[in-house]
Every structure is written in C-alpha cells, then in structure tokens.
Automatic annotation (TrEMBL):
Coiled coil ranges: none
Ranges annotated as biased composition (Acidic residues): 1-30, 37-46
Domain KaiC positions: 139-368
Name of protein: KaiC domain-containing protein
PROSITE patterns: KAIC (PS51146)
Record's keyword annotation contains Lipid biosynthesis: no
GO MF annotations in UniProt: ATP binding
Keywords from the UniProt entry: ATP-binding, Nucleotide-binding
Organism: Natrinema salsiterrestre
Amino acid sequence: MSDDDWFEDALEGEDASDADEETDGDEEWTEFPRDDDPSDTPESADSDGPPDGSAPAAEQPGEVPSEADGTATRDDAEDDSLFDEGFGSALQDVETPTIDDEDGGDGPVAGPEGFDDLDFVLEGSDEPDFDEEIDSELPRLDLGIDGLDRMIQGGVPERSLIVAMGSAGTGKTTFGLQFLHHGLEQGERAVFITLEESRDRVINSATEKGYAFDEYVADGQLAVVDVDPIEMANSLASIRNELPALVEEFDASRLVLDSVSLLEMMYEDRAKRRNEIYDFSRSLKEAGVTALLTSEASEETPYASRYGIVEYLTDAVFVLQYVRPDDFRETRLAIEIQKIRDANHSREKKPYEITNEGISVYQQANLF
C-alpha cells in the first residue's frame, strides 16, 4: 500500500465487501463572641483587667470591633446575621435521597453482581447533580456509555481529543466501539482505525455486542480500516497530512484509533516519539472530528499512559482500572474521569462491568 492511497484502498475494500446547588435561603453560621457579652468570653476575662493593672491585651484575632473605634457592631445586623448557628444545625433538616428496596422500604442501593461485599451508597447531598445540563455555547455530545454520560455535566465538547487509558482487559476497545455505535445510531458517520486487530475481527466483535457495524459498513456510514503499526509509523507524515481532508470527504464526525500505544512503540527515540504523536494528535483536531484514542496504562500506575504522552495532548482522559481487594477473592473494574476540558464532571471512582452489550457504569454507587 502506498502512502497516498492507504485510506482510499481501505474504503474501496469496504465497498467491495457487504457546586452543590447554590442555596437562596439564609444559610447560618456560628456567631463570633461579642465584646459586650460576658457569657461568650473566657473565664479569664471576667475581671475588669489584668491583676497587675497593666493595659488590656491587644484585640485578639476574630474579635468583633466595637462602636468605640467607629466600626459597626454585629448588633446593627442582628436580624440578618449569617452566624447564628453551626453547620450541624443548618444541615439538620436536609433530606438524603433513598431508593426503595424490593420490600417497599428505604434501603441501600444494590450494586452490580460480583460487588456484594463492597459498600454502595447513594450520592449524598454534597454531590453535584451531573444530570443537569449547563449553559454553554460549545456543542456537546454523549459518549453512549450508560452511567458515564451522567457523570459528565452537559456532555463532552465536540471535536475533543479523548483517550481511554487502561491495562489489558479493562475494555478500552469496547469503549471505542460503544462510542462509535452511539453516533452511528444517530445518523452520524464514523471511522475506526485499528492497529491491533483485523478489519473483520473488529466488525464481528461489534456485531456480537448488538452493534450493526456490518450494516453500517455496507451502507457506507462506517469505515473500518486496519493498518499495520509499522507501516503507519513509516507513513505517518503523509497520513497525518491527508487525514483531515480524507475525514472531511467521508464526512465523519467520530473517529477511534485503537491503540495509540502500538504507534508510540514504533519510535525508540523519546523526543521523536513525542514529536510524532504530538503532530498526529494535532492533525486529528484539524480533521474536525471527536476522536477517541485507546492507550495502554503504565505498569507503575493506572493514572499514566505507557509512554506518558497522550494524557497531556488530549482534552479528556478516562482511566479504566482493576480494583483488587485485600482478600484477593475477586477482581473488580472501576472508571474515573481524570480530566475533561471545558466540562464539569464527577471526580469519583465508579464501578463498571463489561457485558455482552458493552460497558455499564454504576454512577449511583460508590466504590470504597
């Protein structure tokens, strides 16, 4: 395959095949002691002054200025004071949401199967409501992953560069397939570039999950392109120059590259690797698509990519990781949103499962 027709040949091959809510009420705080109220002063202040007759001590931090020095006292605003009672009293009557259990009573939230010995609780009153959309001029879109979309207020800004980062078996490829499937269902066009699997393997994996990728390919709505990582590395300069025009010609709005780690490992020199990946990520942004990269996590920490590059070049980072309890009885999966530029989002770690239908995130459950 030449440098100039890698994408066209792939498409031809397809044609040939078939803040906490801000309160408006009077939130009340603990009242500072007043100079004229002996009940709020320390016992040492019961006398008129120091026993040795020396001058009174300097005003302590936190004391309220008196009328003598020309400033208003708290008595002037006694009725409107914000310091009448403590946090405990102010929050005493706050209702905590519950979910009815099977018997009709209030009970804890049931977690996913296999998570029975973990503590799952509802989001408390201190958790922002991420279902509420925010006012923004930036067009936004949903990822199509149940539970995860509700952790993002308003959705991910369009034309963002996203990375799903995790170790083997955490569902990175499934994340990408589900991301494209959601857009295809809404009539969007998409491109899936795989450096790991064959084109047929990707389509079969998607159809097994109920995603009609074979039909989307036959209709010309989806392009699945398998590229050898060595070939792509050797041709990366021409590919990144052609990619924006090719994506625009195909009219794609979503793109997945699985996985960028295989492309990174083609460069032994660290500086060259960083420059090439930086230029490639910039070409994806210029292509005008919302692009998702999958990346292997570092062996030392799940919060960094294998080469420590893509998390700094992307607009959003999703961390998929294993959670192993001390008893080692069962391995669980948890997801965390490390960052999303221009979007508010939950920073909690949430459990998820990979099922025959894709990834399901249990947004209402807390994982301890």
